[in-house]
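FORM 7B: Structural annotation worksheet

SECTION A. Query
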Amino acid sequence: MSDLLDKELNPWESQAARFDFAAKKLNLDDGLWKILRFPAREIIVHIPVLMDDGRIEVFTGYRVQHSIARGPAKGGVRFSPDVSLDEVRALASWMTWKCAVVNIPFGGAKGGIICDPKKMSQTELERMTRRYTAELIEFIGPEKDVPAPDMGTNEQTMAWMMDTYSMHMRQTCTAVVTGKPLNIGGSRGRREATGRGVMIVCDEAIKKLGMKREETRVIVQGFGNVGSNAANLMHKAGYKIIGVGEWDGGLYNAAGIDVPALVTYKERNNTLVGFPGAERKDTAELLITDCEILAPCATENVITSRNAEQIKAKIIAEGANGPTTAVADEILAAKKIFIIPDILANAGGVTASYFEWVQDRQGFFWKESVVNEQLEHILVDSFGSVVEYAETHNVNNRIAAYMLAIDRVAFTIKQRGIYA
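SECTION B. Predicted structure
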C-alpha cells in the first residue's frame, strides 16, 4: 500500500499522469509527446558554504529548465529540507503549463536548495544564495531563465541573486530575477499578486455558479504570502473567511475571522496559535469542514485519496502548486466539485513577474492600479478559456487547462520547426 501512496505523493508522477492524460485527449504527435514529457535541462550543483561557527557545509542545489519554446524559462527558487530533483522537475513543468495557460511568453523552470532556512542566519543564507547563483551564471539571465521567490525565499534572496549576477556581468541587470524589492526594480503589486489571482478566479467561479460573495464561506490552508494575501483580499471583498490552517495548527470561527487582525497577530507572534478571535482547530480537520470555497495555499499533496472523499467544499481554488494528487482528482470529479487548477489559480504570481520583467527591460514602471488591472484582465480571460475548453471537450477544468497549455506549447514548437 505504501508504494501506491508514495507514487501518488510523488509530484513528478502526479504531473506526468495529468500530462499523459491530456496529451492523449489531444492526440498529441508522438515526437512532441517525447519532447514535452521531459525537461530540456537539469542542473545539479554542490555548494560549499562557510557557516557562522567556522564549519564548511556543502548544500545540494538544483535548477531544472523544462521548456524554452515560448520564451525564457521562468520559475521560483525554494529553500527547504524537502527539496528533491523530482519535485523541482514537476514544478518546472507546471511552470511551462502555467505560463502557457495565461498566454505569457515564458517557458518553465524551477530551482531549489536542500536546506532549512529557519535554522540558518542571514549571513549563511546570503553566502549560500550567492554561491548558488554564481554556479548557475551561464544558465540564467533575462533572455535565458528568470528566477523568482518561492517557499523559503523572499525579496532579499532575489536582491542577492540579482547582485551576484550583475557582478559577474559587470553591469546592473535588474531583469535577471523577479520578486525583487521595489527600489531595485521590483514591481508594485507583485507581492500580493498570487493571492489576488486566487481571489480573481474565485470571483469568476462564483459568478459562473450563481453564488454571492457574502454568502460564500472560505477556508484557507496555508497563511504564507499566498494564503494571507488571498484571505485578506477576499475578506475585504466581502467573502466570509471561516477557517485558516497552518502547519502548527488552525483556526475556525463560523461567524467569520477578522483577517486583518489575524495578519497583524501573525506578524507579531510568527504563529496563528493563540489568536483570540477564533477557536483552535486541527488543519487536517479544516480541509474537510463544510464551506463553499477551499483554498489550499501551502504545499503539495494536501488533498489525497485519504481525505478527498470527505471534502465538502463546492469549489477548490488551488493557491499552492500540486496540492491535489491525481488519484484525489478522480474522487473530486465524481463529487462534482468545481476545481480551479493550480496552473490557473496561482498564475497571478508569474503574471505579475512577467510585468516586472517587462518593466525592468523597458526601464519604465507602472502604477499599482495598472498592474492589478492588467492582472485581472489576463486571469479573467484565461479562466474563461479554460472553462470553455472543459465544456467543449467534456473534460474537467484541470485536464482542460493542461490541454490548452500543451496545445499552445506544441503549436509553438511545430511553428519553430523542431524537426529540421
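SECTION C. Observations
The chain has a mean pLDDT of 93. The first helix runs from residue 2 to 9.

SECTION D. Sign-off
Analyst initials: ____
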